[in-house]
Amino acid sequence: MKLGFKNPLNRLNVKQQMILLFLVLVIPMFILNSYGNYKAGQILKRHVTNAYIELNNQNFRLINRDIEAINKVTSTVFQNSLVQGLNPASSEETVFARVKSYEKLEILLGTYSQETDQRQPLYFSLYVYDPENTYFFAPFYPNPKKAGVYFFSSDEKPEWFDEAVSKKGNGYLKLIEHLSPESKGQDNQKTLAYVRAINSIYKNGTIGVLVVSNMDARIGESMQTVSVPEGELYFTDWNNRILTAIAPEHGPFLDLPPEADLGNSMIGVKDIITNDFIYVINYNHVLQQKLIYRVPVQALLAQQNEIKRIIQLITIAYIVVGLLIMLYFWRSLMTPLQKLVYFVRRYEPGNVVPETPYRGRKDEVSVLIFTIYDMARRLNGLIHYKYTMDLKQKESQLQILYQQINPHLLYNTLESIYWKSTMEGNTTSAEMIKELSKLMKISLSRGRELITLEEELEHAGAYIKLQQHRYDYLFHITKNIPDELLSFIIPKITLQPLIENAIIHGVKHMGEDGEIVISATHDEEQIYIQIEDNGYKSVDYEAIDKLLNDEKHNPEFGYGIRNIHQRIRLHFGPEYGLVYARRAEGGTRVTINLPKSVQTYE
Questions:
Q1: CA–CA distance, 517 with 583 (Å, rounded to integer)
Q2: What positions belong to coiled-coil segments (predicted)?
C-alpha cells in the first residue's frame, strides 16, 4: 500500500490557517528582536571596551611620561653638588656654612618646584636624618604643597623614611598619610608622592630621601585629559590601593571581580565585561601600578535601552495595526466567503437561487460570489433547457420515424414505375427513373454525413446520366480514380455540385467538344480529387477565393461551393477544402483536398 504525505494544514479551516499564519509572522519577529537586541548589546560593549582600552592606554602613557619626567628631575637633583656635599654628621662646617648650604638647597628645590606650563605644580622636598641636630636652625614643619629641606632627629623620623632607604635609590609612588610624625593640631598632610632615596656618590651611605609631593593632582590632571563621561578612573598600586581617582566617592581600596586577577603578568592591558561594569586595566608590575577604568553597563546601555524601547513600541504598534488590518480583512473577506460556502453546500441544481449578496462591491471576492450565483442561475437554466431539449428530441425522433416511411414508399414507387416503363418499352424514361432513384437513395445515405469515395462517385455518376438523358448533353466524361482510394471517406454530395458547376458554367453549350475529367492523386497523408473542364468562359478566380474564405458571406454569390468548402473544414480541419485554379490547356480546375481517413459504420 502506497502511503503519501498528508499535509497537516489540510485539517485546518481558513480561519485557523490565517491565525496560524499571523502567529508564524509575529513570533519570529519577537525572537529576532530579542536576539538582535542581545547581539547589539554585546557588540556595543565590545566596541566601547575597545575604545576604552585605547583611552586607557593614552592615560597610562601620560602618567608614565610624567613619572619618567619626575624621575629624570630627581636624578638631576641626585647629582647636584650641593646635595652630594650635604653631611649633617660633619663637624668641620660652621653653623654659618650650614645656614648658607641650607639656603642654597631651599632655593634649588624651590626652583624645581616652579611650573611654567600652567600645569599642577610638584613640590620637591628633601628629608635628611640629623641625629646630632646640627641643623637645629632649620624648621621641621613639612607641608605637601611646599618645597623645602627638612632635618629631623630620631623622634621626628617619618614612618616611610626607612622604607625609602631600603629601596636603595629606586624611586616609587607612595600614598603618604603624614609627612612627619602625627602630632596634635597638624594640618592634613595626605598626598601622593614620588619617593626616592639619595645615596652619596663619593662614599657609602644615604644622604636623605627626596619626596615629590602633590603627585595626585598632577596625575589626576593627566587622567582628566582623555577621560570619558559616565566612567570612573582609578590609579592604584599592585594591591588595588587607590593612589588617586576620578570618581565621586571611593574608599581606600578598589574592589575588583575575580577575573581581574593578573597572576604573573608583567606589563599589558586586560578587559573584563560583567553584568554591572566594564573594567579596562592597564598594569605595570615593575612599577607596581595599575590604571583602571570602570564603566557602569547600565549607563553605557542607557541610550541603547531607549532605542530598544522605541523599537519595541514600534513593534507593538505594528502588531496592533496588523491585527486591526487582519480583523478588517476578516470581516471583508472571510465573512463573504463563509456565506458563499454555506450557499454552495446547501445549493442543489434546480433550486431557486436567492439574490446575490455584496452586489455593490467591486473586489475579487464580490466578483467570485457574483460569478458563482450567476453560474448557479445559468446551471438552473441549462437544466430546464436540457429538460425541454430532451422532450423535443423525443418528439423529433418520433417525427423521424414517421418520415422514414415516406422515402421507402418513394423508393418502392419509383421501382414500380421503372419496371412498368421497361415493360411498356419506354427504356429512356425507365433509365431516368432508375438514376433518379439511385440519386435519392445515395443522397439520404441512411442519415450518414461521411460516405466512401466509391459511393460518392456512384452518386455523381447517377447525376451525370440523369442530366445527359434530360438535356441530351453530348460532352465527354473521363474518370481516372485509383482503386486504392475508393475506400477513403468524403462528405456526401461533394462531387455532384462541383460537376454541376462544370456542366452549367463550362461545357453546357460546347456539344461534343466539351469534356469533364474526374481524377484523383494522393501522397502519404492526403488525397487530391480534381474536377476539370475545358470551358471557354472567363472565370473570376479572386472572387471565388473570396467567396470560399471570407468570414462574412455575401448572399449574392450563392451558397453551393462555399457550403462544400465549409463542410470539409468542419469535418477535417481548416487545412483542407477547395482550391480553384485555371487550367494550362484552358478551362477551370477545382481541387478537393482531403485527409486519408477510413470510417467504419455498423
A1: 12
A2: none
How many Å is the Cα radius of gyration of the chain? 63
pLDDT value at 417 more than 70? no
Q: Is residue 227 a contact partner of residue 56, using CB atoms and an 8 Å limit?
A: no
Q: CA–CA distance from 144 to each of 20, 198, 215, 262, 531 (Å)?
A: 77, 19, 10, 33, 139
Q: What is the pLDDT of residue 227?
A: 56
> What is the Cα–Cα distance from 421 to 506, expressed in whole angstroms?
33
Residue with cell 463573504: 336
Task: Decide the pairing of beta strands 450-452 and 289-296.
Answer: unpaired
DSSP string across 352-410? PP-PPS-TT--SHHHHHHHHHHHHHHHHHHHHHHHHHHHHHHHHHHHHHHHHTHHHHHH
Q: Are 561 and 575 in contact (CB under 8 A)?
A: no
Separation of alpha carbons 387 and 349, rounded Å: 13
In contact, 159 and 181? CB cutoff 8 Å: yes
Q: What mean pLDDT do residues 437-443 have?
A: 60
Per the DSSP assignment, residues forming a β-bridge with 173 are 194
Burial grade of 44 (CB within 10 A; 0-12, 13-18, 19 or more): middle
Among the listed residues 309, 326, 331, 317, the one whose alpha carbon sits nearest the alpha carbon of residue 23 = 326
Sheet containing 577-582: give its strands across.
476-480, 515-522, 526-533, 588-595, 577-582
* 64: Cβ contacts below 8 Å, ≥ 6 apart: 284, 287
The model's pTM is 0.47
- pLDDT number for residue 310: 77
Q: Tell me the mean pLDDT in the region 89-117.
A: 78
**Contact assessment for residue 157 and residue 181, using Cβ atoms and an 8 Å cutoff:** yes
d(CA 559, CA 184): 144
3-state DSSP assignment of residue 199: strand
Instruction: Judge whether residue 430 has pLDDT over 70.
Output: no
What one-character-per-residue DSSP string does 427-462 give? HHHHHHHHHHHHHHHHHHGGG-SEEEHHHHHHHHHH
Residue-wise DSSP of 231-252: -EEEEEETT-BEEEEESSS--S
3-state secondary structure 100-149: HHHHHHHHHHHHHHCCCCCCCCCEEEEEEECCCCCCCCCCCCCCCCCCEE
Return d(Cα 423, Cα 403) in angstroms, integer: 31
Retrieve residue 507's grid coordinates: 461545357
Judged against a pLDDT cut of 80, whether residue 224 lies above it is answered with no
Q: Is the pLDDT of residue 290 over 90?
A: no
Distance CA 257, CA 556 (A): 113
- pLDDT class of 404 with cuts at 50, 70, 90: very low
Alpha helices in 524-559 (DSSP H): 541-549
Name the DSSP class of 4: P
